[in-house]
Amino acid sequence: MKFVKYTLLTLLALIVIVLVAGWLYLEPLVKGVVNKFGSQVAGTEVSLAGFSLHPLDGEVEIKGFTVANPKGYTTPNLLSLGGIFVKVDPKSLFSDTIVVENVRITKPELTYEMPDFSTSNVMQLQENVARNTAKKSTPAPKEDKAEDSSAAASKSVVIRKVLVEDGALSALTPLQKDKKPLTLNLPAIEINGIGDGKKNMTIDESIAIVFNKILFNATSVVTKELGNVSDMAQKAANKALDQVKEQVPEGASGLLDKVKFW
Fold first, then answer.
1. What distance in Å separates the CA atoms of residue 152 and residue 164, rounded to the nearest whole number?
2. Which of 9, 105, 117, 144 is deepest in the core (most CB within 10 A)?
3. What radius of gyration, in Å, describes the C-alpha atoms of the chain?
4. In percent, how much of the chain has pLDDT > 70?
5. How far, in Å, CA of 221 to CA of 59, rounded?
6. 222-241 per-position pLDDT tens digit
7. In degrees, to the nearest 5, what angle opens at C-alpha 225 toward C-alphas 219 and 230?
């Protein structure tokens, strides 16, 4: 009985050691992902304030994740995330493919800057991501594993579910002459099955999918709002034109019939 007892205790201790080692492995993994996504994919500075591990719940909490604006825009950050809660399958940390059961992103705050109707900070970031994730260059030989900061970030990943909720959006557009940003709600987003059916989806590619969905969502909201503002401006302008027509002499009013603002 003592032998069985000690054997079970030994196995339990080994399991605990393996789980702890797996969770500690997440530190270089998270740092590697942030560094790779920021420097190689987003083309702008990406940072995080910190993260904490919850082994008993199988969760990682990432805090203070921000994406800086591309150069030439007024606000420091394009996107900040209030919190990222990630639940992984611990066993997958030791395999070539990390299985993420779910990701919950709370309180994303996005600043949409459109200096003119041909470009925006969101468009610039999406172009950066598309260009940099499309590159398929041959990786350089590894000289030293200790110096290979992207080793952890190069693993494949499958993400079962992503939920983004409670988002806020500020928009600066050419239609706002007072430079006061529009304050809008960012609708909730749910994405399922990232990496399913695709061989060797990298972590930065999966992150790009999530970010592109958030950015596309923001663009849709801003575009709709601009349409509403444009309609209001058009109605106001036409109303003003009608008032002008009422004030001009009867014979001259026909000169204004062909005037159109849109």
1. 25
2. 105
3. 26
4. 62
5. 32
6. 888 877 655 545 554 555 44
7. 125
